[in-house]
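Researcher: I'm preparing a figure for a lab meeting and need a structural model of a single chain. I don't have an experimental structure, so a prediction will have to do for now. The sequence is pasted below. Please return the structure as tokens so I can convert it later.
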Amino acid sequence: MIIDFKSALRKAVQQNRVFAGTSDDQVSLIMKHGIKRNFKADELIVQEGQENHNLFLVVQGNLEVRLGNPPDDSGVQRISGIKLNKLAPGDCFGEYSLIDRMTVSADVKATTQGTLFQISGPEFKKMISANDDLARLMYKNLLVVLVKRLRKKDRELDLVMVMT
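Model: Understood. Here is the structure written out token by token.
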């Protein structure tokens, strides 16, 4: 399927929670600080444990976020992989590593072909340095997104743990 990348990107930025509340000028600024990246079905985009300090926005296609089962430094290994999330146009990933500069916390693998918008760590810094209002808005939005994820995980843990 052929799509107009710029229109699809603008739509994805506008519906993404990290970029919520951005003005048209800010959306244009965001679009100047990243690159288009095509992916194929079954392509591994990022792998748990690798260095990758980029923010990715799904423009077209679908991906899956999973914890794999590689052994850790002590040889301990998960019994199987754990599916964490499905990603669709307008979703993003990579924000953990972008913020804390740690290695990637999960695998992200394409389930269909599609297109991403990738903002590197240095480009992200340039972008938010160029617009204080955008920086405040994005950091607030990132905080809200991460707190919501944490609260959701707390509820999930509450369902499986027995309090003594």
